[in-house]
Model the fold of this input.
Amino acid sequence: GINAEYMGKSECVILNAAGEIIGASQNKELNQWLIGVPKVVERVNELVADAKKAAGLPLDTPLVSLGISASGADKEEPKQQIAAGVAAQPACKAGFYHVCTDTFGSIAAGVGPGKAGVVLIAGTGSNCALQNPDGSSGNCGGWGHLFGDEGSGYDIAYTAIKLVFEVSDRYTACPAGSIDVLRQKMFAYFGVSSLQDMLSHFYPTIKKPFFAAFALEVVDACQSGDACAQWVLSQIGSRLGRHVVAVH
Done:
């Protein structure tokens, strides 16, 4: 089975008949909206081949089934394209293929088929889904960092950095404590010495996984008692909670 992604990474595990992991591998993101279906197929083939190697299996060993749970795999047409492309790869021969978005892969792993469950994903991006026993479902989020991803790692980084800029510009007052610690962590993480220098990380395009990983610095500041970082994470927690309320 393949799951993607955390901080732009994907992982593949091969299980034996007893449900034990006998091989695993990692690769880069599998979001077809970002890299396109052909690249997804290529990376899935690499994941399976590397996992078979780790398990000591010949590359042409057929799998009973191959499940792919990935961000962006939510429309029927690209799901079919991914399944067909993967089925044609030498390392990916299987008796059955299933492609789904990462939310429903998580629900399947957590509660199984025919049961009610809610999953809330908060990694680089965010998404929330509800599954009912009758098979119906609901969703909130998953719209990408421009118009969604509330409560995600990206949102933590964005909220903290935006606050540093707005307080520095006197556009808004600091809601708690001061921005000093967050500003220092931002300068150190991005390797800059001024707010102006940060512009090089905003243009022409933001490197989303790298940008989102700044969230770990915000969490570290929060755990160290910084009031401003604690305020940021309180806002993030509220945004995540609203996802769950929405799908109910």
In short: The radius of gyration is 20 Å.
